[in-house]
Amino acid sequence: MGIGAEEKKPLLVQLNGQYYDIADFAPKHPGGTKVLNRLAGEEIGEFIRGEKRIMGVRHEHSEAAYNMLERYNVNTIQKGDPLIESKSGMLFKVGSLGSEYWHWIHQPYDGTLRLFDSDILESMTRTSWWVVPAVWIPIVVVFSVISVLSFSSSTDVYNSVLLWSAWFVIGVLTWTLTEYSLHRWVFHWKPSPKSPNQILLHFLAHGLHHKTPMDGDRLVFPPVPAALIVGFFYVIYSNTFQWPVFCAFGAGKLFGYVMYDMVHYYLHHGSPRPRSNLHFRKVYHHNHHFKNFDVGFGISTSLWDYVFHTLGMGPL
């Protein structure tokens, strides 16, 4: 698959808003590696101050422990990183990371990276969240109306709406499986460290998002490349289904995509009410980024994580 067994995964913990990658320290931790693995992705302030137990143990750490922890501050580690601090486009330099790439993208950078030298090309990589529904929801509505009208040529209005609803829901469910499959088997495909082109391709597909998870202008998919993908599936589905079925199914799948992009954006930038479903989804996705990126691939739903045994972790 490309990444060798010697590749270590980051072990991220958070203290006062700062992330620390303690993977190198974990084997030397006096309390054992298991304790730190249990806290991966979590805010550790209460534990390190001895205010809360972890695995039955409560321990107030010394000033020396805080000083030692500071060595692993991700911001400190990233100082001097030429790809992060570069004022010119870094996209075509990322392939030079080689075997360091997989670890590098999973040490999050709270900022944005300049991909291209050209201001025009750079602007095309950025999309505000509201653009996605503004472009695609009108198309969902149009194809839904066309579907109902087409169905009504052979049955009454009630059954036409019923048929549209059924195929629309099937389209939404199909999207959720597509979302899961893309995230798990395409976005989390591991490029060969010996192939700069594979690294570049992965970085464009998903590596950039894991490196800069809070970059709000690069969370949703730009409509221009999305239109090419929609057009591809338009050709396939319109030649597979009858016209009214295609319109309902396609509208449902497109609606599912829009909801996915909106939910994904909200999980990174929204503040859901504690113990609500969206709060669970936010923590679930946060843990995918900062606790274990090999599980928790569902964004809009955990359904397929259950089916394929890749269930992540929600709130503690």
UniProtKB/TrEMBL annotation:
<feature type="binding site">
    <location>
        <position position="209"/>
    </location>
    <ligand>
        <name>Zn(2+)</name>
    </ligand>
</feature>
<feature type="binding site">
    <location>
        <position position="285"/>
    </location>
    <ligand>
        <name>Zn(2+)</name>
    </ligand>
</feature>
<feature type="binding site">
    <location>
        <position position="210"/>
    </location>
    <ligand>
        <name>Zn(2+)</name>
    </ligand>
</feature>
<keyword id="KW-1133">Transmembrane helix</keyword>
<keyword id="KW-0275">Fatty acid biosynthesis</keyword>
<comment type="function">
    <text>Plays an essential role in the synthesis of galactosphingolipids of the myelin sheath. Responsible for the synthesis of sphingolipids and glycosphingolipids involved in the formation of epidermal lamellar bodies critical for skin permeability barrier.</text>
</comment>
<dbReference type="InterPro" id="IPR036400">
    <property type="entry name" value="Cyt_B5-like_heme/steroid_sf"/>
</dbReference>
<keyword id="KW-0444">Lipid biosynthesis</keyword>
<feature type="binding site" description="axial binding residue">
    <location>
        <position position="61"/>
    </location>
    <ligand>
        <name>heme</name>
    </ligand>
</feature>
<dbReference type="Pfam" id="PF00173">
    <property type="entry name" value="Cyt-b5"/>
</dbReference>
<feature type="domain" description="Cytochrome b5 heme-binding">
    <location>
        <begin position="1"/>
        <end position="78"/>
    </location>
</feature>
<keyword id="KW-0862">Zinc</keyword>
<feature type="binding site">
    <location>
        <position position="288"/>
    </location>
    <ligand>
        <name>Zn(2+)</name>
    </ligand>
</feature>
<dbReference type="GO" id="GO:0005506">
    <property type="term" value="F:iron ion binding"/>
</dbReference>
<dbReference type="InterPro" id="IPR014430">
    <property type="entry name" value="Scs7"/>
</dbReference>
<feature type="binding site">
    <location>
        <position position="264"/>
    </location>
    <ligand>
        <name>Zn(2+)</name>
    </ligand>
</feature>
<comment type="similarity">
    <text>Belongs to the sterol desaturase family. SCS7 subfamily.</text>
</comment>
<keyword id="KW-0256">Endoplasmic reticulum</keyword>
<dbReference type="GO" id="GO:0080132">
    <property type="term" value="F:fatty acid 2-hydroxylase activity"/>
</dbReference>
<protein>
    <recommendedName>
        <fullName>Fatty acid 2-hydroxylase</fullName>
        <ecNumber>1.-.-.-</ecNumber>
    </recommendedName>
</protein>
<feature type="binding site" description="axial binding residue">
    <location>
        <position position="29"/>
    </location>
    <ligand>
        <name>heme</name>
    </ligand>
</feature>
<feature type="binding site">
    <location>
        <position position="206"/>
    </location>
    <ligand>
        <name>Zn(2+)</name>
    </ligand>
</feature>
<feature type="transmembrane region" description="Helical">
    <location>
        <begin position="129"/>
        <end position="151"/>
    </location>
</feature>
<feature type="binding site">
    <location>
        <position position="268"/>
    </location>
    <ligand>
        <name>Zn(2+)</name>
    </ligand>
</feature>
<keyword id="KW-0560">Oxidoreductase</keyword>
<keyword id="KW-0408">Iron</keyword>
<keyword id="KW-0349">Heme</keyword>
<feature type="binding site">
    <location>
        <position position="183"/>
    </location>
    <ligand>
        <name>Zn(2+)</name>
    </ligand>
</feature>
<dbReference type="GO" id="GO:0005789">
    <property type="term" value="C:endoplasmic reticulum membrane"/>
</dbReference>
<dbReference type="InterPro" id="IPR006694">
    <property type="entry name" value="Fatty_acid_hydroxylase"/>
</dbReference>
<feature type="transmembrane region" description="Helical">
    <location>
        <begin position="219"/>
        <end position="237"/>
    </location>
</feature>
<keyword id="KW-0472">Membrane</keyword>
<feature type="binding site">
    <location>
        <position position="188"/>
    </location>
    <ligand>
        <name>Zn(2+)</name>
    </ligand>
</feature>
<feature type="transmembrane region" description="Helical">
    <location>
        <begin position="243"/>
        <end position="267"/>
    </location>
</feature>
<feature type="binding site">
    <location>
        <position position="289"/>
    </location>
    <ligand>
        <name>Zn(2+)</name>
    </ligand>
</feature>
<keyword id="KW-0276">Fatty acid metabolism</keyword>
<keyword id="KW-0812">Transmembrane</keyword>
<keyword id="KW-0443">Lipid metabolism</keyword>
<keyword id="KW-0479">Metal-binding</keyword>
<dbReference type="InterPro" id="IPR001199">
    <property type="entry name" value="Cyt_B5-like_heme/steroid-bd"/>
</dbReference>
<dbReference type="GO" id="GO:0006633">
    <property type="term" value="P:fatty acid biosynthetic process"/>
</dbReference>
<feature type="transmembrane region" description="Helical">
    <location>
        <begin position="157"/>
        <end position="177"/>
    </location>
</feature>
